[in-house]
Amino acid sequence: MTQVTVKRLWKEFGAQVVLENVNLHIDDHEFVTIVGASGCGKTTFLRMLLGIESPSRGEFLIDGQALATEPGPDRGIVFQRYSLFPHLSVMQNLLLGLELQGSPLLGRLFGARRRRALDKARELLDAVGLPGSADKYPAQLSGGMQQRLSIAQSVICEPKILLLDEPFGALDPGITADMHTLILKLWNMNKMTIFMVTHDLKESFALGTRLLVFDKVRLDPQSPEAFGATITFDIPLKGQRSPAEKRTSP
Amino acid sequence: MRRLINQRPGRGGALMLSMLPFILVVCAYLYYSHARLLENPGDKLLPAPATIAATVHRYAFEEDERSGDRLLWTDTGASLERLLAALSISAVAGLSIGLAIGVLPYLRAAIAPFVAALSLIPPLAVLPILFIVVGLGEAAKITLIIVGVAPIIVRDLAMRTAELPNEQIIKAQTLGASTWQVVIRVVLPQMWPRLIDALRLCLGSAWLFLIAAEAIASTEGLGYRIFLVRRYLAMDVILPYVAWITLLAFTMDWLLRLLRSKAFAWAAPGA
Q1: Which among B127, B268, B104 has a CA at the least distance from the CA of A138?
Q2: N or C: which end of chain B has fewer CB within 10 A?
């Protein structure tokens, strides 16, 4: 069970107010899609969830606990670019999370534990549609394949929350449809909570169980930075939960 | 006719063009050497190829009557030993300190400005201090090269480390990496090829400091020999020694480039 609660959250950079008075409660296994105009603070919101930005006022709670002030293995992230490690092969990229968590000193696994990790990684590699690419380097993959790998790399650690920062923004429309199928499959498989920032309104309706729209409710034409954005629409959606679960979910 | 910027030589053409300046220099040398020797057979400035060949043979294959050494090889051995010792120490120091500065903000705040100041001290200006403090032996020469080269490698690697996309460092943390694990699994492996690049760029100045140190206080070494025979205007020794040093430096550069492309296939090729 993972519940995310946001209470009276404000974020300011100096005199510029980015977010004001954000209140939110997200239940377990929701697929939250976040849309809004450029510069409306949706990425800032995601960065605060990630732990690389801290709220100016208010609080972020995960299962009632204050959010850690640095990134951790309970919250996975997929950026639009640069989240793969160029010096590691596809398989090594995928294994990295298991190796880091299984071996504090060397960050590498050996023997039976390595074989178990490899089995898990191979399974996931097949699931995300990248079999046969295990020994390639990220630079040899297409943009879509890189994002598949980046998602798999996060999912293998079974994070409670997966954060997606416009993960498909740089991909061809044709590939995006495949990626949607993939992310829904992984979401239903791992029962995690997903927060996804996107520019694509259609995408946000198609994937989400909850759609958040960030916008400014107050605007001062003399000083546009005086007021921040907040959640102007919070729309529950049907979503695409797997059939078995639809009966039990509220 | 196509624009000049779009006209490219073929493989053979490129090779010929690259040889051309070398051939021109050799031809010019032969012409002026011949002309000067016609006028004055005792001329020492541009010795004839035969004289140079005889001298090289004497230095490389005959034992020196005073020391019993084959001078070219003892000089080469002594110089390379100093150079490699200094470059190894500089590489280890550069990698560890540079990486630590790049990764740890507190360390960056504490010592990055200090290293920057250190790297601006002209190394030759501290040579007398080195001679006074560590004596005239090998240590002074090796230290001079380190003083000249290590701060530059430190700064370069600190910058390369800081240049790594922040997304990578954040991603590693979400995969559970500690600071130590970020260093050994994410940063260090990506810094090896950068270290090789930094070493290649430093080779020139490393040789400069080596020859300067040898010229001032030494009893063997390539730089020592050149400055020794300068007194007798022995261009027949100096010219092949300079060519030999250039060849050694070129070979080291080539070996480093080879190592980079073979061992770090994932990295984009350097210059």
Answers
A1: B268
A2: N
